[in-house]
Structures are given as structure tokens and as C-alpha cells.
Amino acid sequence: MAFRRRTKSYPLFSQEFVIHNHADIGFCLVLCVLIGLMFEVTAKTAFLFILPQYNVSVPTADGETVHYHYGPKDLVTVLFYIFITIILHAVVQEYILDKISKRLHLSKVKHSKFNESGQLVVFHLSSVIWCFYVVVTEGYLTNPRSLWEDYPHVYLPFQVKFFYLCQLAYWLHALPELYFQKVRKEEIPRQLQYICLYLVHIAGAYLFNLSRLGLVLLLLQYSTEFLFHTARLCYFADENNEKLFNAWAAAFAVTRLFILTLAVLAIGFGLARVENQAFDPEKGNFNTLLCRLCMLLLLCAAQAWLMWRFIHSQLRHWREHWSEQSAKRRVPAAPRLAARLIKRESGPGALAASPALSVQPGGLSAPGSVS
């Protein structure tokens, strides 16, 4: 009897050592970056990746506080947090969404939308809580005039700048996620539209020193988006549950009104009354009539486009709903009509006189049907 010699298999060289998903890819990349930072570069360069840059001490009544402004080094910090976001995205997908979707037994189309909404629910919920905390602690809600007073808002608190860097990192990470998640070609244009829309508005508020107004507008927008994706998840769990969609529809229209009103109030009227009106990119001042008109035009066009898509989708949904209801009403009409004909006609040749019906051993049927 021949015996085979067992060879010792090391996990590193075996077939089990395979990169299965993009979580491992992101983890390997971040691990390589961290190892390089630890052994080959100084601690000062390591902080370039992790912490916001361009800190400045600003004198205040209580002393000095550290604020930040933007610069080219922010791209390095955003790049680092893109890798972090890819890892968090994969963790949510693998340990939460995949386990739930297996129990629901969704189709491929619904499974893709379920993953999209599940990721965005987590992101929007965390962003709403974080943004609300920043807005309250900085006093932007209690003092609405602070949204345009003392413009340009060049120097930002740590939590405001870090919030914007993380927002840019998330929406930039969504671009490679289209490949990692194997999104269908039909869904890619739609997702690219809202990804680019968020990137343009967030980067515009950050670069044009309208960070305070941008925070309030993001809080309104993210609250509505969180409600929508929560409603979609509930619909996938139970198709008869559409109550949250009605709440989202009302909140969506009200949010568009609030965003337009606040934008016109802050940019159209507030910045127009500020004394410092000049175009000086070095000082971060973009308070001119042309710049204000371009900002308002961009905001109004985006909100009008979103509202048009919303009305179009609602009309299509109502048409589908009424067509289903009319189809359900037409289905029981045929048996009732046949029963009435049977009752009206009497005698041996009654059923034979009707051209639409004939009698077979199995009962009533239309001409040419097989019993």
C-alpha cells in the first residue's frame, strides 16, 4: 500500500491566500502606506496623511484658537481617507448588507439597489448626526446671520475642515466603487450624476469659502436622502410598505423650498450687503455680482433638475398604480357578465344562441378553447 507524503502548506503560498474583495485591496494599500510612513519617512510627513493641514493661530477674546484653511496638501489627506472609506464600505457590505440580503432572496436588480441604499443609509445617518453636531456647536442655527457675515470664511475650525475632507473622500471613493461593486451598465449614468452633483457642490462650498452655508444645506439634503433610502430598504423587506415613500415625497418638496430660500437669502441678499465686495482669490474673496449670480444659477439649476426628476418619477408611479388598479377591476368583470347572460336566457337553445359562449362537458368556455 503506497502512502503519499504530505507536504506542509503555508497559508502565504497556498490557494487560500487570495484577495477576494476590494476590502482586502484597500486594507493592503493602507497597510503599505502606514508601514512606509513608520519606517521610511518622518512623523511630520505621517501627519500630512492623517490630520488636516494649514493650521493658523487666530487671536480671540479668550486667547488664541487654532483654525485651518485649505491648500494643495489637502489632496493627500483626502487620498488617505479614500482608502479608509473603501475599507469601511467593504465592512458594511460584508458583515451587514450581505447577511440581510441573503435572507430576503432578492433578484439581481433589487439586490443592487438594496446594496446601494444600505450603504447610503449608513453614510447619510452618520453625516446627519455629525453635521448637526457641527452646526449646533458652531452656532450656525442659533445665529443665521453668521452664514454670510464676516465673509470670506477663510479660517475654519478643525471639525468643519475635517468634515469637508471626509465628505470629499467619500464621494470620490464612490467612483471606484462602481467597479468594485460590479454595478450594471444601466445604473452607472444615474449614479455618476448624483456623485458628480455632490462633488461639485461640496467642493464649491469648500473652495469658495461658503462652508457655513454648505453645512446647513448638506444637513437638509442628507436628511431627505436618509429618509428616501430608508423607505426603499423597508420596501425591499415588505413590498406592501410604502408609507415612508409618502413621507419622503412631502419632505423632498419642502426641502427643495428651504434650500432655495436659504441660498437666495444668504447669497443673493446677505453677501450683497457685506462691505468687503471684491474678487481676490489670494484672500479667498469671491464676493462679486457675477460670482453670486453663478452660484445662485448653479444651485437653482440643480434644485430644478431634482424637482423635475421627482415630478416625472411620481407621475410615472401614479400611472403604473392606476393601470394596475384598472386591470384588477377588469378581471372579475368577465365571470359576472357570463353569469348574467345565463340568468337572462332561458330554454334549451338559450346558450347556443349566444355567439360568444358555447357549452362543453367541462362547462362554459369561449369559442375555440380547449377544455
Automatic annotation (TrEMBL):
It is found in: Membrane. The chain crosses the membrane at residues 78-97, 118-142, 162-180, 192-209, 247-269, 289-311. GO terms for cellular component: endoplasmic reticulum membrane. Residues 348-371 are annotated as: Disordered. The keyword Membrane applies. Residues 112-321 form the TLC domain. Its main location: membrane. InterPro entries: TLC-dom, Translocation_assoc_membrane. The keyword Transmembrane helix applies. Pfam families: TRAM_LAG1_CLN8. It is a multi-pass membrane protein. GO terms for biological process: protein insertion into ER membrane; SRP-dependent cotranslational protein targeting to membrane, translocation. Keywords: Membrane, Protein transport, Translocation, Transmembrane, Transmembrane helix, Transport. Belongs to the TRAM family. This is Translocating chain-associated membrane protein. The lineage of its organism: Eukaryota, Metazoa, Chordata, Craniata, Vertebrata. The gene is TRAM2.
